[in-house]
Design a protein that fits this description.
By secondary structure, the protein is mostly helical. The protein folds into three domains: 48 residues, Arc Repressor Mutant, subunit A (Orthogonal Bundle); 42 residues, Arc Repressor Mutant, subunit A, CATH 1.10.10; 53 residues. Helices cover 71% and strands 0% of the residues. It has nine helices and no strands. The longest helix is centred in the last third of the chain and has 18 residues.
Length: 158
């Protein structure tokens, strides 16, 4: 291993020690250090063998954070994982690991909040604006409609 590769490996280990990172994030960090593509692949291979990079672990952490902290839906999360180069099977497995009750609680919280703040000429327009807003966060429209159908119940806006 060349000196620049050793230094790159050391920097990459430090980078991966602070937070979960996927291959594409580590690759981008190493490219900024002007390492050759061969060196980058060598370093990433070492990091995977040592357990610093684990796409599955990264995906689960990413999904957990995006659902609970950023309040994203499955569709937007899948797009983000695809953009980061995570294999489809790993992304689907991570997204399917979300607790359905937590997911619905996040969706309901968003709907209540958005429904209260949206203005519309009538009830239909208000619902459509709410659906559009929440769908933009990556939630599935059938689920949005299912939860929004409870707007008639008095506890929806509590």
């Amino acid at each position: 291993m060349k000196e620049e590769e050793k230094e790159g490996l050391q920097k990459a280990r430090a980078y991966c020690s602070t937070a979960e990172h996927c291959r594409s994030e580590v690759r981008a960090m190493l490219e900024r250090r002007d390492l050759s593509p061969h060196s980058i692949e060598e370093i990433i291979g070492h990091l995977e063998k040592e357990g610093y990079i684990d796409e599955s672990r990264y995906s689960r952490a990413f999904v957990h954070d995006k659902v609970l902290l950023t309040k994203w839906g499955r569709i937007k999360i899948m797009q983000a994982l695809r953009f980061k180069g995570i294999p489809q099977e790993i992304a689907e497995e991570a997204v399917s690991s979300v607790d359905p009750d937590e997911y619905m609680a996040v969706l309901r919280e968003l709907l209540v909040s958005r429904y209260k703040s949206v203005k519309g000429a009538d009830e239909y327009e208000r619902k459509m604006k709410t659906i559009k807003s929440i769908a933009g966060r990556g939630f599935e429209i059938p689920l949005i409609r299912e939860v929004l159908d409870f707007t008639e119940s008095p506890d929806f806006t509590d």
